[in-house]
Specification:
Strand order of the largest sheet of chain A: 6-9-10-3-11-12
Oligomer: heterotrimer
Radius of gyration of chain C: 21 Å
Strand content of chain C: under 5%
CATH architecture of the largest domain in chain A: 3-Layer(aba) Sandwich
CATH architecture of chain C: Orthogonal Bundle
CATH superfamily of the largest domain in chain A: P-loop containing nucleotide triphosphate hydrolases
Number of helices of chain C: 15
Distance between the termini of chain C: 20 Å
CATH class of chain C: Mainly Alpha
Largest sheet of chain A: 6 strands, mixed
Helix content of chain A: 25-40%
Number of domains of chain A: 2
Radius of gyration of chain A: 25 Å
Helix content of chain C: over 70%
Order of helices and strands of chain C: HHHHHHHEHEEHHHHEHHH
Strand content of chain A: 25-35%
Number of domains of chain C: 1
Largest interface: B-C, 39 and 46 residues
Largest sheet of chain C: 2 strands, antiparallel
Strand order of the largest sheet of chain C: 1-4
Chain lengths: 506, 339, 338
Amino acid sequence: MLLFFDVEWGEIMSENILEIRNLTKEYPGVIALNDVSFDIRKNTVHCLVGENGAGKSTLIKVITGAIQRTKGEILLNGKEYHAANSNEARVKGVSTLFQELNVVDQLTVEENLTLGVEETKFGFIKNTEKNAQVIKTLKSLDPSIDPKQSVSSLCVAKKQIVEIAKAVSSNADVIIMDEPTASLSETEIQKLFGIVKDLRKNNVTVIYISHRLDEIFELADDVTVMRDGRHIETKPITEVKDRVELIRMMIGKTIYEAYIPPEVKPEENILQVENVSNKKLKNISFNVKKGEIVGFYGLIGAGKTEIARAIYGEDPFHGTITFEGKPFHPTPHKAIKAGVALVPEERRTQGLFTMLTIRSNVPVMSMNKVATMGFLNIAQEKAATKKYIDALNIVTHSMEKEVAKLSGGNQQKIVFAKSLFSDADLLMLDEPTRGIDVGAKSEIYTIIRNLRKEGKSVMIFSSELTEIVNMCDRIYLLYDGELCTCIENGGDIDTQQIIHIVTGGE
Amino acid sequence: MKKESLLSRKFDFKKFIQKNYIYLFFFLVIIVFSFISARGTTWFGRGHFLSSYNLVSLIRVCSPTIILACGFTFIMIAGYMDLSVGSAMGLCGVIYALIVRAGYPFIVGMLGAVGVGILCGLINGVIVTRLRITPVIATLVTMMAYRGVALLIVPDKFSGIKSTDILSLPTWFGDYSRGKFLLGLPPAFYVAVVIIVIIVVLQRKTVIGKYSAAIGGNSVSAQLAGISVAKYVSILFVITGILAAFAGVTQASYSGMGDPLSGYGMETDCIIAVLLGGTAFTGGEGSTFKSVIGAMIIICITTGILTVVDAYYQDFLKGAVLILAVTMNKLINSKECLA
Amino acid sequence: MGKQKKKLLVALSDELFIILFMTGVLLVLFGIACIAVPNFACKSNILALLTNNWYLVLLGIGTTFIVKTGNMDMSLGGIVAMAGVLVAFFCQGTDATRTLDIGLGLSFFPAALLAILCCMVIGLINAFFIARLKVASLIITLGTGFLARGIAQIIARGAQRSTNLDDSFGLVGKMYVQFGNTSIKLSVIIMLVILIIFYIIEKKTVFGRTTYYVGANAKAAKLSGIKADRHLGTLFLINSVLAAIVGIVLASEFLAGYSTRGKGFEFDALCVTLLGGTSVAGGFGSVLGAFIGTMTFSIVTNAAGGMLLSPDWTFILKGVVTFLAIVAQRYALDKRKA
C-alpha cells in the first residue's frame, strides 16, 4: 500500500512534462516573447491559442531550437532543456510537425517516413520491424496511401498525413503540432483527432496549435492563451465556458478607438474584381473605391496574399478585373504602368535589393522618372531619395548606405518609398507592419492615412486584427479562399464576431 | 467511354516515351550508324558498325566516360556539380603511369591513383561545404589546379609518359584496357560494369543514395531530418574522385601513356550524358543506368561520325548534341510536371 | 584616429571597398614581383603588363555584367575563334584554287560587321535558352561554346584561314598610335574606349542599374516591374558582341583566323572578373574591377614567366589566385559586417 502510494506520489512530482519559466525572446526593436511562464501537464493535449503575432510560433521555435531564447529557462521532465536544432530536440524527445511541408517529393512515402532514422548495417538500409510499425501508423491514418508511391504524386493533404505519421512514430514524449489541419479534409481531420487521442493514451503529450477554435474544444485538456508575446492564462478546457470566452481571452481589452473615418466619403470605383478563382481562391468579388482603405483579414493560408498576387499578375486566374474602368490583364510591369503597386509580404526577399544603397532602391519602380533617354540623372535621383527620406522619416546618416544595414522599420519605409515613387493610384500592402517596432508602425499608419487624403486607394492584407480595425474603412473577411463578409467600419466593430467568422464559425 | 479509354492509352504512351526515350534514342543511333558505316569507309577501319571488332572498340573507348558519368549522376542527384572530374581523371592517370614506370606492379599504381582521387574529392568537398563556395565556381577552380598539378609532375612536360621513353612503361601497361580478359573484352570493361553495379546499389540500397536524393530534393527537409548535409556532400565528392581515378587508369592504359591532358572536356561529355539520361538539373532524382546509356550515345555520335566526316566536325556535333540534350531534358521534365 | 578610419571604411559602399581591397592586393603583388623577379620593374615590362592582355579586359567587361546577375558565359572562347575565322573567311579573295584560300572577298569592315552579326546568333541562342527556357547558363553556354568553335573548325577545316588576305586585313590589329615616345597598339585604345563606355553604362544608365537590380534580387526586380528575363538575354547578346570584337581584332593582329584561338578564354575571363572583386553570388561588381583583375592576372603570369617557371605553372597559379580572391573577398566582407 505504501509502495503504491509512493508510485503515485512520484508521478505527482513529475506531473509536468514541460515547465516554461520567464522565457523571453527579443528581436531588435520587438519583443516577441515577454516573460512567459506556464506548465504543460504530462499526457495531455495542450492547446496554444492566440491571434497572429501573439507569440505562439516564437515559443514553438524556441522549444524546437529553430531560434535561441534571450533569457529564461525550459524544464523537460524537471531537467533543464536546451536544443540547438530540431534534430537535437527530437533526440531529446520533442518532435515537431511544422507548418510548412517538409517532405522530399522525389522520395517514396516509405523513404520519407524513415528519412534520417534508418537502421543500417554497413550503410545498407535494413527493412526492420520499426519500418513496419511506421507504415502501420500511416495505414491507420490513411489506408489509401501506398508506401511505395512517390510523394510527388500525393496531394498536399496526403503529404501532410505522411508528415503526421512520421512525427507520431518517432517515439517522442512531446509532439508539437503547428496548424496540422490547415490543408486537411473533414474526414482526415477526424482521423487525426483519433490519432491525437490515441497518443495521449500512449503517454505522449501533444502541444496543439490551431486557429480553428472548434478543434480546441474537441481536443484540448488544457488551453493556454497568449497575446502580444505575453502569457495570458492557462486553464483546463472544462473551465472555459464557450467560444466567446476564449475569443475574449485572445483579443483582450484592446481598445479600438484609433479608427479615423475619411474626410470625404469615397464614391468612385477604382478597382472592380469579379468572380476571380484560381488554385487557392474561390469566386472572389469585391471593389475598391478612390480614396478608400480596404482591409482583408483572415488567418494564415486564407488567401490574402493570393488576392494581391492575382491582381498583380503573379498568379494565373479566371474571372475579370477592371481597373479605372478598363479591363486589366496584368503582369507586374503592366500593373505598375497602370498605377498599381505592391508592397510585398517579405520585404527582404521580395521587396528590397538589400546589397544596394537607399538611393538605388527608391526609384526602381519607375526609372523613367529619374532618367532621360536611358541615362540616369543622379541629381534627380538624389533629390527624390532625399524627399522620401524626409517625408517618411527614414533614419539614416546617408542615402548611400546599403539597405541591409538599416533596421526593419526603416527598410519597410523604403519599400513604401519605392511604391510611392511609382505614383500608384492603388497600393496593395501585404502585411505592411510585420516585424517592426511600435514607433515605426504608427508612422506607417500615418503614411497610409495621408495617402487616403490624397485620394489614393489602399488595400491592406493583414493578419493583425488591430491594424485592420484601426485603419480600414471597409473590411473583407476571408476564410479558406472565400470572401465571407464585408464590414463597414463605423468605429464600432465587433471584433469577437470577426474572430468568430475567420476561424470558421457560421 | 471509348474516347476516355483512348485518352488514357495515349497518356500511357506518352509516359512510356518519357521513361524510355533514351533507349529508343540509343537504338536509333545504332541503326543510323550501321547504315552509314555499311555504305562508306567503316568505323575504325574494319568491318560493319555492328561487327564484333567495332563493338569491342566502342566499349574500350566508352569505359572512362561511362565510369565518370556514374559519379556525375550521383553528385547531380544531390543538386551539386563537379566540373573537376576531367582534370582529376588526367591527374590520376599520370600518377598511375608514374608509379608503374617506377617499377611497381599494377595494383600499387591503381591504389596510388585511387588515393589521389580521394584526395581530389576531399579537397572539392572541403571547399564546397566548409568554405561555402558555389560548387560550380569551386570545382572550376580545382579543375584548373588539378590540371596544373598533372602538367607539373610529368617529367617530360606536355608529351606525357610514353612507352617509347627511355624509362619505358612495361609491355603489360596497356593490358588493362586493351587485353583480352573474357569474351575478347579487356579487364577495364568488367571493372566498369562492377562500378556501375556498385553505384546503382549504393544509390538504391544505402543511406548515401537515399540521403543524396533527399538533399537534392529538399535540403531543408534533409537538414530537419537530422542529416548532415556537409558530410554526405563531401562523401559524394570523394566517390566522384574515386571514379575519376578509375577512369584515369583506364584511359592511361588505353592510350598507353600518362597524358596530363587526358580527360580534357570530359565534364562536358558527362553533362551531355546526364542530360540525355533525363536527370533533373535541380537534383532529387535521376538514373545512373540511363546516364551510362547517355554516355554511350555521346561516344557513338562524336566518334562514330568520323566514318563520314572529318575530325573537325566533332566540336560542332558535340555542341549540337548538348543543345539537343538540354531541350529534350527540358521537355521530359516539364511534361512530368503536367502529368 | 583609428575610429575615424573605421568610420571612413564603413562609409564606403561594399563594392568600392572590395575594389579598393583588390587594388591593394594588386599593388602588394606588384611590389613583391618587383623585388623578387629580375627585370620586372623595367619600363617595357610594365608597359607590356598594362597592354598585353587587352583582350582579357574586354572579355572581363562582359563577364562582369553576366556574373553580376549570378550567371556564367562559357561560350566566350568559342565565339572568339568563330569571329576570327569568319572575318578571315569573309575577307579572303574569291579567286583561288585551294578551298581554304577561297573566301567571300569582302573588305574588312563589312566583313567584321557580318562576323559580329553571326556571333550574335550564338548570343541569341544563349539568350533564348536562358531567358525563355530557364536553362542553367553554365550548361547551355558550354554547348553553344562547342557549337561556335565547331563552326570555326568546319570553316577553317580544323586549322586556320590565313592566305589570300589583303594587306588592309591587318590594319586594325597592327596599327600603333604614337604618344610622345611610346607607341600604343590601337587594340589597347579600343579596349580603353569600350571600358569607359561600359563604365558609363554601368553607373549612369538605366540599363546598368537594371543589371544590379536583377543581380541583387531577381524576385524583387520582377515584382518591381523589371523584365528580368529579357534583360538577362540582352546581356548574353552583348557578351557575344564583345567576344566577337575580340576575335576580329585578334584575327587582324595575327593576320589569320585560327580555329583554336581563345581556348580557355572563358576561364581567364572568369578569373579576371573574380579577381576584380565581382561577387560570384551576384549583386555587385564593376567593370573597373575587371581592369584591375586583369592587371593582377598579368602580374601573376608575367612574374611566373620572369621567374623562369615552366608554363605548366600557369594552370595552378590561375586556380590558386582565383581561389584566394574568392576567399579573401568573402573574408573581407564578413569582417566588415561584424
